[in-house]
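Dear support,

Our group has been running a series of protein-ligand predictions, and this particular one with adenosine-5'-diphosphate is the one our PI (initials K.S.) wants archived with full inputs and outputs. We had some confusion internally about which version of the output was final, so please treat the block below as the authoritative record. The input we submitted was:
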Amino acid sequence: MSNEKLTDEIALQKKLDKIKHAFVVLSGKGGVGKSTVAVNLGLSLSSRGLRTGILDVDIHGPSVPKLLGITEKRVTVQNEEIVPVELSKNTKVVSMGLLLDASEQAIIWRGPLKANVIREFIQNVAWGDLDCLVVDCPPGTGDEPLSVAQLMGSISSAIIVTTPQEVATIDVEKCITFCKHLNLPIAGIIENMSGFVCPDCGKEVDIFSSGGGKKLAEKFSVPFLGKIPLDPDIVKSGDEGKPYLYFYSTTRTAQKFDEIVEQIVNSGKEKQNVGQNEAAIQKTLEDTSEQHKEVSMKFAVPTYQGKLCAHFGHCEAFAIIDTDSSGKVIKEVYENSPPHEPGLLPRWLSQKGVNCVIAGGMGSRAQQLFAQQGVMVVTGAQGEYPRDVVEQYLKGTLQTGANTCDH
Ligand code: ADP
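Confirmed final output from the archive:
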């Protein structure tokens, strides 16, 4: 091995040493919801306090930035390393879509080039210490999953996403054989778009025959992780770039994602083939409750389409953001706003433990009501993303102007 290659191998190994486990998300074909599942698994893992990376290795059609509502963000370069976009203190994201503008993305990548890019995404990214890295691969068993498996095989396991319609096809079986050939352990199979929960009565209806995922898992002796129903809000949140688990955190579908993650993390304790560091992951999970005790401030930022809403009374959802004592965001979730009845919002936010509301504008009556609840109000805030607004506020760099709706 040449010296240069050896240096590269050492650099890669050093990075892998800091990542406890990687979940490589695969599917037999496109459109089964693989990226949707990948990002929401990542969000669920990070919401438990696990330091999570989300790596989108789809070079031709990266969809992770859209699903997370960060298409306008870009990774930066510091000390010759790519610095991921931080969705929260626990969640770092890297994707080709965060590197290039759409017009530049029509680059033709061939096999060896792709392999190099994927290596760069691991070796030359300042991931820091991660408990888990969720890797969203393009569909099929082509160059990208192969590179990922070859580069990170030692710390990874695969999660295979399928749908009731796709489950019996040769593509999904190919995916399983691909993992077996590469000795990539399979953490399990997820059946997505399985059944429909009636929004009116809550009853679960199987539109297409479901249960195939479980049978497939049994056939190949791999774990079955669970089913995610067909949920119109997933499509809506994806189209609007609102991370599903942030904006719909209390739904039954969100619960299903959480149950799957619970299973993945717990199975780590029992099954050797899910990786070597689950005890550490489990420990981190146990530490999560400790971490929650560290929350020093809880902010609420009124939003419209994921961005700071200038008019408090017209907001669609609130970003509820926890920060720790160092001023870092440790958790960000979105809650749909209750009806804007007089007095309701101050009570509702105060019951959630919010200590500070940062808004573009707010009427004086609402400000009084917040004051009565002991909630601080900052008005005239300018900015886009709620997390940035909070971080700037804590650093003392938040731009504020006139209260935009004190009519
Ligand atoms: P893939 O990565 O497999 O190509 P995507 O995650 O991009 O698939 O999803 C394809 C489409 O299916 C998107 O419009 C997405 O919103 C939708 N989708 C994914 N999962 C679900 C689900 N459980 N219910 C409804 N729509 C879904």
